[in-house]
Structures are given as structure tokens and as C-alpha cells.
Design goal:
The complex is a heterotrimer of chains A (295), B (361) and C (205).
Chain A: H1 3-6, H2 9-12, H3 21-36, E1 42-43, H4 57-66, E2 72-77, H5 84-97, E3 100-101, E4 110-114, E5 127-131, H6 145-153, H7 158-171, E6 182-184, E7 188-190, E8 209-214, E9 219-223, E10 229-231, E11 259-263, E12 270-274, H8 277-283
Parallel strand pairs in A: 2-3, 2-4, 4-5, 5-8
Antiparallel strand pairs in A: 1-9, 6-7, 6-10, 8-9, 11-12
Helix pairs in contact in A: 3-4
Chain B: H1 8-25, H2 34-40, H3 42-52, H4 57-66, H5 71-82, E1 100-105, H6 138-151, H7 164-170, H8 198-206, H9 210-222, E2 230-244, E3 250-265, E4 279-286, H10 290-303, H11 315-321, H12 324-333, H13 339-357
Antiparallel strand pairs in B: 1-2, 2-3, 3-4
Helix pairs in contact in B: 2-3, 2-4, 3-4, 3-5, 4-5, 8-10, 9-10
Chain C: H1 12-26, E1 32-33, H2 47-56, E2 62-65, H3 70-81, E3 84-85, E4 93-97, E5 121-126, E6 128-130, E7 140-145, E8 153-158, H4 163-171, E9 180-185, E10 189-193, E11 198-201
Parallel strand pairs in C: 2-3, 2-4, 4-5, 5-9
Antiparallel strand pairs in C: 1-10, 6-8, 7-8, 7-11, 9-10
Helix pairs in contact in C: 1-2
Classes of the chains: A alpha/beta (295), B alpha+beta (361), C alpha/beta (205).
Chain lengths: 295, 361, 205
Amino acid sequence: MRFAELVPPRRTGYNFAFLDEYTKREVRRKILKAVALPGYQVPFASRELPIARGWGTGGLQITLSLLGPHDVLKVIDQGCDGSVNAVNLRQLVVLTTGIKTTFDTTQATIIQTRHRIPEEPLTEKQILVLQVPYPDALRIVEPSERKTRQMHAEQDYSRMWVYLYEDIVRWGEITIGARYPVLVHGRYIMDPSPIPRWDVPKLNMAETLYLFGAGREKRIYAIPPYTRVVPLEFKDHPFRVEDFSGQACFRCGSVNSFLDEIYDSRTGRKVYACSDTAYCDKRLGMRFSAGRNGL
Amino acid sequence: MGYVAVRGGTEAITEAMKMLRYFRLKGGSRPLEVRQIQEQLRLAVDRVMSEGSLYAPFHAALALKQAEGDTIEASFILRAYRSTLPRSYVSLPADTRQMRILRRISAAFKDIPGGQLLGPTRDYTQRLLDFTLVEEGEEQVAEFIEEYLKDLDIPEEIPSFPKVIELLRLEGLLAEEEPVKPEPPDITREPLTFPAPRQAALQVLARGETGGLLALAYSSMKGYGDIHPTIGELRVGYVPLRLKDSWGREVYAGRVLVTEAEVIARLEAVGEKGKPQFTLGYGLCFGHNELKAISMAVLDRAMRSTRPQVPAEDQEFVLSIVDGIESSGFAAHYKLPHYITFQSDLDRLRTARRYKGGEVE
Amino acid sequence: MIEGKQGFDPVFDSQKIFRCILDSMARPGKINLLPATGLCPPGEWCSHVAAVAFTLLDREVTFCVLGKEAQKMESYLVLNTGSRPVKVEEADFIIVPGKDLIPRLSLAKRGNLEYPDGGATVIVTVDEILSDPEHRYQGLAVTLSGPGIPDHCRLLIRGLHLSYLEHFNNLNREYPLGVDWIMVAEDGRIACLPRTTTVNQEVVI
């Protein structure tokens, strides 16, 4: 049964998935080009949405252009489904599509995320859509888009390497935390969005398709499955993920997930907990309230 | 320990929305009518239409009511609304020489054909807080309007108002404009790339945030730039809009209130015969907003500088920061949780400290 | 404009078809099956190539149809998508019949270094696309490798003129410049070749 038959447009006042078909078509065309050019930032018009710029409009335009009535959506922010912003985005999607949502990573067909890749490995039946504030990894060395576009065109990444080298000279290591630059398919240096270094290895030769949307900056880019994604490093200073040795999640005991440091609001004590809350709940054997309006 | 932050989100948002409503209404004063805002706060409405990029006075007034007077928030609401609207027609280029003038001045000449018309302006008032506005009764208002209309001296003929810059053009003192494409680019349909054509740049400025535009234009006027503008003409009035219907016939669609500024910059360009000429900066926006139109014109000229030296002359810099919806959205987004990136930074800091201090933490 | 009266739902069919194209473009060589639509394009063009065109084309992009029945298809697409027909060297989308030799395809735009995404998308109709290597003796057998493909994958395409392989390799000789391909078979199967794919013709022993 079609969504249009379930909820006639006149009642909701909006097209299925909010965006008009022109917008969706443009985003879809750009997604295809992004997939054909791994790591390259494709400019797109980027419509305005009832959600503020900087709050996920890029990721949202991609998600809304992908979604069909039978998709199952998961939305997370900092790894958490219950985060206020994730709730807000999920509400907009459900209001304009009526699709099923879930907290269970393995049940989702489309996952929109801000700043984390879920702990459970994603499959070829899934697409991960990442929200991006700064689409260009070279922005830290050059503020002008015109100039960085030229640098990418000519594969002139010398200034980036100098920046990294200077970091090592000063601090003994590359001090970039999240947004760690990677080289994609041996050609483009790419910003993987503010995911922690912990998540960067998941991009390399993955089963799933990764799509990146920057609404305010108006760029879409992609990492197709089975694509080489290599973090920039020097031979004597290899790339390293965050170090959680000696720590475990105080709830589920996990020592293999990215952990948040939390100061308990009552005792003031510092504890560590899985950032991926659905993963943590699963390990504890908790059930999920998925469903049509699982908010 | 009860740390399961998974289901609190929805309730928190609902409560926040209720609290917003409460804060707007708790004073107990009579709820504002949208019409009151539309009529008596017309300059706020004009600003919101201009920055929301949608000529819809009632909707702008409603957005202002919803946003409790926050013009950036109201512009945002209007922009979001705009993006859901179907686009059925594109108007034919509007001719501002056909403007029904409300206000029209020139700083370039003492007197001009058609005359200097002050119109509704505060420019020559003294900024003294007017306490008589506290008690403004409906009777008083009706009386005043009646008297005012009675005393009006309506001329036999409306004078014509030729453009001041045409006078300069006729003498060959104004540089020729570069030819433009008959179908202008649409920055809401195509991504902006740099260097941007002038038509695209003007579109960005036309929907730009007034304060941002003013600050940048001021930087140029103040000395961080080369633009010492003489206002050739500033016009405020109603411009007719025409479009072609499906059968190709020209149809009058209505009129829009706009503010137009034509600013003459110092001599620079060299004309065909090798002689210097003036160049023009142009600004146009919805509604009555003189500071914005003047700022636009100054920036229009500054950005076309052949050798950009200062921020206001850097086209990419200006165009990427003046949109109020983008800047406010991004500034506000720092309030979103960033603890993952912070965690990553903490890790780096601790590692770096180990390197510096030689101690294991 | 298409209003769903032709047996093509502009909202839901577009979405399903797009997801098929995306999956195939992200996984070159993976065959997807397009949903059936009620479209009847003119001449010998199949409903599926029309459906792909309806999904991707509108007045904001340009297109070109090449081959024997180009004119009819062009008018059909102008009427139904609002897209603008232009010369092949300017077209964002190029629709070609795979069984014919089309030398002009070599003029397709490949983008430039600053905007390689300006390269065209070619939609080529073929008779059949198969992944089963057993049926090797009829058709063009190719081995594919590159992003989206774990190790390598093999395809057998029937109804594709040999020159197309040359076109593909030639247009994509200078990554990131290039052209991206969508192959549409009569029965609605599709497979895509983004410019990152290395395509080698298999030698039949």
C-alpha cells in the first residue's frame, strides 16, 4: 500500500519525506556522482529545512532522498538514540513518512548519525548517513574554498602534510582527535566528519555504503563499499585510536567500544559508559521499543 | 546509578515547547494580533521578509509573533516555509523606473529632476524616547488619520522620477555594466561556486542578514577599504511585477515594496576612449530597509575590486558569511552535544602531556 | 509533467528505482532488478530506460539521445521530464542503444579537475546482463575491479557493441575525469559502472 493512500497529502500538507521531488532528484543525482568519485566533495544546492543549519540538514536531505515506505530508520547523535537532537530529527522524518524507526542497529536499513559509527558492523543492506559540519579536511590549513578546491584538483596536499609534521614536532604525535583526515582510493584527502579515531578504521573496505552530507556548506560525498580508506600517518608515527586501556563500561562491562567519560550527577564520580547506547543496552539484554513511532 | 539517557528526549522537548509558550503569555497582556505586527512593526516585518527571502507580509508578521520578536528566528521560519512552496513562475525583470515612489533622495546632487522626497523617514528626527506613545488610544488614532488625510495636498500630476544615474550615463561618466546572462543563476537551485557571477552575489546579499552586511560595509567605509560611497539615488516604493502566463501573455501579478540604492564609487574604471569613469554599486531588497540596501551596494562594488586587499573586497569571504540562517544555525549548533569530539581531544591531550612531561598518567 | 497517470508514480517509483541505481553504482557489477512501470516510450526503447530517465532527469539538467530512434525518444523525454536536449558534448545525461556503434559517444563531457562531477552519466540499453559465468559464449564478458567490488566480479552483457568498452576505457583514462555508466537491460535488470571501475574484457579460450 502506498503512503499516499495511508495519509493523503492534504492532511499532512507535505510531500512524502518532506522534500519536493525536484530537491530529491538533485540530491539523488549528486549522491550518484559522489559514489563515482570516492572522497570528492560534490556541491549541491541544499534546501532549507525547518531544522537549523548546523543541526543536520545535510544528512537529513540525504536521508529524506533515500527513504521509501519500507525503510527502517535509526537516528543517533554522539551514539545515542535518545539524544534530544536525534529525537527531533526522527520526529520530522516520522511525521512526513510514517516509516518504522528502531534503536536496534541491526534492524535499521538507513542510519543517520552525528559523530559516531555504531559498534555493531554494518552490512550491505544498510546505508550510513553521516552529518558533516566541515566537509573539507584542508580547511584547517586553508580557509578559502576556492583554494582548497584547487588543491584537491591538483592533488597538492603538501600543506596538510606539513601541518601534521609540525604537530609531531611540537607534541610528539598528531593531535587531531575527531575529524582525522584520510586518503580515499589513493586520490582525495577526505574529512570523515567528527567521528572519533576509533571509528575511522570502519570506513576501510567496508561492506556498507557511507554517505556524508554537509547542508550548510552544501557538499555531499561518499565512500563506496570495499574502498581503500587510509588515515594519514608517518611511518614512525602511525595512526592510533583512542586509548581506553584499563577502562570498561560501568553498565555492560564492554572493553571493545568507544567510551564516554561521565561525571555522575549525584556522586560526582567519574565513570565510563558505552557511547553507543543501543549496543550497551543489547549487551545488557534489554529489549528495544521499536515500532511505527518508536521515539 | 540510573544512567539510561535513552527515553528522556521526547519529554524534554515537549516540556521546553510548553515553557516557551508560557513565557510568551505569562504576563497576561492581550495576545498580539498578527495584523498589529504587520501594520505597526512594518520595519521588522520588512526585515524578516528580506532575510527570509519571501515577500509575504502576513506570514512574516506571524513568524515574528511566533519568534517573540527575534528577527533571525522569524526569518528562519519564513525560509523553511519558502522551501516547501511550489515555484510556478519566474517574473519578468522588474523595472524600478516604474516604481511608485514613497521616498527618493540623492546625495550626489542638490536638486534632481522630480525633486528630493523625504517620505516616511526618521533621518531628521531627534532620537528622544516618546512617552506619548504609551497611551495611544484608538480614538486619538482615528482623529489623527482623518486630519492627516484631509490636509493632504494631492498634486494634479505625479511627477516623473528619472534615474539620477541615467544623467551621469548620458554624459558618459558612468562605466558600462558588463553584459549579464538573460537567465540569471538561482542560488537556491545551484550551489554557489567562486568566483561567483555578480547576479549570484547580489542574490546572496539580497537575502543576507542586515547586521552582518552593515558591519562588513562599515569596515569598507571606515577605512578598511576603498569605497567612499556617494548615494546617487535611494528609492523606496512599490515596483510592479509582471510574468508570462502559460500562453506567453504578459500578466501583471502584483507589486512589491522594495528599497533600492545606487551608489557611486570613486573614479576607477577606464572607459572605451581611455578616460576614467565612475563605477556603480547596486543594492536592492524587499521592504523598507535602507541600511541593508546601502550596505549591499557598497559591498557589491567592493567585491568587484580587481585587487582585493581587505575582507569586504574578498568575494568568497563576504558571500559565505552574510547569510543569517546559516550563521545563526551554525553558531547555535555549538550548543549540541560535542562530547565525542571532546573525548577524542582529551585522549590526544593526555597523550601529548605524556610526551612532554615524560610521566605516565 | 509526469503526474502518475502513465503508470509511473513520481514519488514512490522514483525512490525505488533510485535505490536500485544507487546500490548498483555503489557495487559495480551487482545486478539489481528495477520495479515494473507502465511506461510506453516510443520506438524500440524499453519501459525501463524511460523509468530511469524519469527518475533522474528534470529541467535542471540536460540530456542527449543518440542512435537511430533518438528523435522520438528525445521528444518523449522533453515532454515528460522537462529536461533540455543539447548536443552530446554538453549533455549531463546521454542515452544510447547498446547494440549500435555510436562514435559520437567519445565526445561526452568528462568534467574538469576542479569539478570532475561535471562528467556525464551514460544510460545504455542492452539485451541482457548476467552474472553467471557459465553462459560465456555469447556476448561481452568482462571482469570488473575497483571500489565497491570485493576483489573482482564478472559480468556477461548481451547486446552491447564492443566499441562501448573502448569508449568506457577511453573516457575514463584520466581519473578523476570521466563518465559514469548505467546499463539497463530489456527485462529491467541494471548494472552500473562508475568511472572508478577497471573493466577488462575476458579472453574466450
